[in-house]
Amino acid sequence: MAALDKTEKRQRSEVVNMRIDPNQLDLIDAAASLCGKSRSAFMLDAAYRAAQEAMLDRRLFCLSDEQWEAFNKALDTPPTKNEKLTQLLTTQAPWE
Q: What global pTM score does this model have?
């Protein structure tokens, strides 16, 4: 059987193993049960949310020269006229 190339291998589900303290595992199991999820689903959801937060919280971006030019071009391009946004921003809020 030929070895799978990296692209084909990445399309399959991966197995992640970890060691975990029994007290932590009990807490995770209890929380997963409360949410009606399996331990794996609960841990995957939590890890995925943490990964998203880590990515969204980045404040330093390293860009190539080409990416830097595209970024600056996007910043320098005047916004397009948006009638609905203009109307929203000029309408007085009901509580005011």
A: 0.51
